Amino acid sequence: MSQPVPSAPVGLRDVLVGVAVENEGGTASSAVGYGLTLAKAAGAHLTLQSASWRLAGDDRWISRFDDGSVAEIDRRLDALARAVAERAAVDARLAGVVCTTETPSLPYPAVIRRLAQQARLHDLTVLDAEIWTCDLDREAIESTLFESGRPVIAVPPGQAAFAGRRIIVAWDGSAQAARAANDALPFLRAAEAVEIVSVGDAAEIRDAVPGAEFAPHLARHGVNVVVNDLPVSGSVGDTLRSQTGLFRADMVVMGAYRHSRARQFFFGGVTRSLLRSCPVPLFLSR
Question: Counting beta carbons within 10 angstroms of the beta carbon of residue 132, is it exposed (0 to 12), middle (13 to 18) or buried (19 or more)?
Fold first, then answer.
C-alpha cells in the first residue's frame, strides 16, 4: 500500500462507500470515485457496498400481481450492482488501494440497515448526495448518521475526486458542530486553510459559543484556522453556499440535524438545504 502523500488526512484506516442501484437508468456515482481517491490519499482500506434494491418479496401487493417481470428486474439490478463493484475493484487495484466489495440484494429497509451496520465498522462513510435528494439517498445519509455513530461525507454529482486543501467549518456553537469539527480533525490538520464560519446576527452569534472561542482549540491541534462571522443572506444555507464559493472551499464540515428529522422534514433545515444543493462534499457528524 502506498504511503499517504503530504497534506493527506492522517489517521484514517478504513473508508466505507455505499451505493444503491434502484433503477437501470440511474446516474453514475460520484461517491465511488471520491471514496477511492480519498482512500488512496490516506493510505486507507476501502470497502464498497454496492447494493441493489430488491423488489420481489418487498411488498405483498407487488408479489400478488407479479408475472415474473419483477424477478427479472431484480436480476438486472443485481447485475448492475455487481458491475459497479467489479469496476471499483479493478480501479482500486490499479491505484494500489486495498479494496473489499460486497453486493447485497435486499429489500429497501434492509439495504439501509445493512449500510448503517457496516458504517459502525469504519472510520467514515462516503455516500452520494443528489441535487434533488431521492428517498433512498436521503434515507441512507440520515440513517447512517443517526444509527452508526460515525461521520458521513455526502458527495454531490461531479465531485468524483477527493480534495481537501481549503475547508469551511460551519459553526453554530452546538454539540453537533463541535462533534463534526473533532471528527474532521484529520482533514482539518491536513488542509492549507480552514475557515470557521458562523452565520447570524450579532446577538445570535454572541449568545452561542463564538467561533473565535473555538478557534484556539483547533489551532492547538495544528489547524491553520481563521474565523468569519457572516450575516444571513437569504437563508443560512444560501449564505454557506455563497461563502463556499468565495473561500474556494473543497469541503464543508458541519454538525447534522441539530433539530429532529421530523422537524427538518416539515419545516426544512440547514442540513437538508445543503444536501439538496451544495457545490462541494459535506462532512457531516451528529
Answer: exposed
The boundaries of the domain holding residue 124 are 14-155
Residue bearing cell 451544495: 278
Q: Are 42 and 8 in contact (CB under 8 A)?
A: yes
Cβ count within 10 A of residue 207: 11
d(CA 57, CA 198): 48
Q: Are residues 171 and 144 in the same domain?
A: no
pLDDT, one tens digit per residue, over 127-145 is: 998 754 445 567 889 899 9
For strand 152-155 and strand 124-128, is the pairing parallel, antiparallel, or unpaired? parallel
DSSP H/E element including 179: helix 175-183
- Residue located via cell numbers 468565495: 246
What does pTM read for this prediction? Answer: 0.89
Tens of pLDDT, residues 180-224: 999 999 999 999 999 999 998 767 666 677 899 999 999 999 999
Buried b (16+ CB within 10 A) or exposed e, 88-106: bbebbeeeebebebebbbb
